[in-house]
Write a sequence for this structure.
């Protein structure tokens, strides 16, 4: 069984056999998954408090994106 890559877009006005690029969504999704995992780790380290978790999300986003 072969694995096929996700959808790609052809660069407009390019010769046939040009480079195919993945959609931007792929990169954004990867960022969000890293942030989600880090936020969960921070939440667990804080003792899994009952809150909406937004402070952990913002902290993880800051750490992940270098903001």
């Amino acid at each position: 069984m072969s694995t096929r890559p996700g959808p790609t877009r052809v660069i407009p006005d390019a010769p046939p056999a040009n480079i195919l690029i993945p959609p931007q969504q792929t990169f954004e999704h990867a960022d969000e998954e890293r942030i989600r995992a880090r936020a969960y780790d921070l939440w667990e380290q804080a003792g899994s408090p009952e809150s909406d978790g937004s402070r952990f999300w913002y902290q993880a986003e800051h750490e992940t994106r270098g903001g």
Summary: The two ends are 42 Å apart (CA to CA). The chain has a mean pLDDT of 76.
